[in-house]
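Subject: for your reference before the review

Hello V.,

The reviewers asked for a structural picture of the protein, and I figured it would be easier to keep everything in one thread rather than splitting it across files. Below is the amino acid sequence we used in the manuscript, unchanged from the supplementary table.
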Amino acid sequence: MKKVLYCAGLVLSLCMACQQNKVKNPVSPPIKEAIVSEKPAVDSLVFQDKMIRIYKIDSISFFKEQQKADYKRDTIASISDVKVAKKLLQGRVVFGDYIPGKAMEIDTLMDGDVIAQVRLNDGRLLTAGKTEGAIDLLENMFVKYFPSEEVLLLEGGHTTDQALDLRQGKWDIEEIGNLDYVYFSKHKKYRLNGMYGGQECSSYFLQKKENKVYLTYAQIPLDWNNNFEFCTLKDIFWNGDQQLYFRNFFYGAPHDKRASFYRLDIISEN
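And here is what came back from the structure prediction:
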């Protein structure tokens, strides 16, 4: 009888211990059941001025809009063959090459891609060796010519972009830009433009078409709140004429937290 009671008590104790163990260590649900599907994050306004607003968006929204927009980029034709460019620019641009042993002097009788003189459409002359504004032809080499825009793209020290707008009589790269950067909006009312300044990152700005020419509309800030933000814009596309989408990228640091997706809205009165 004592043995029966002892066995019954032992079984009861084991059952209670098992029950307590279940309470202390509940069985985790399967991983699939624990994961909750996330909704796309709400667009976050990161910059605003009187001309533009910039939002940080999630990748889902970005690729969804990219597919809907079905954007086809229209590039600006250019000529990089200096021999062809010389023929087109005959009477307007004089080319030559550096005189051996005299790096700061140009011989226009020599065959080269150094620009000695430029005659703008308004009749003004730019001559190598004479600094005009921020450009000296002696320090810049021919890269290409954009006939439809009458723009010469040059390369300065540290591979910086420089440009001459023969039609408008300008030579400020921050107004002309490197036309290889251009992305037109759907009806070409606006366009994204940019330039490389010799450092790691490029600069970007928007232009608006007025009287058949594109003039600077707004600068796209490289930084705000004392924090460097934009560097190289990739996967660029327009949705209509008012919205520009792009991905921010850092060469050498592709996983930088600022390397994200963005939407730019143009604030326009008309």
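For the response letter, the relevant points are probably these. The radius of gyration is 31 Å. The CA atoms of residues 184 and 191 lie 4 Å apart.

Happy to draft the paragraph if you're swamped.

O.
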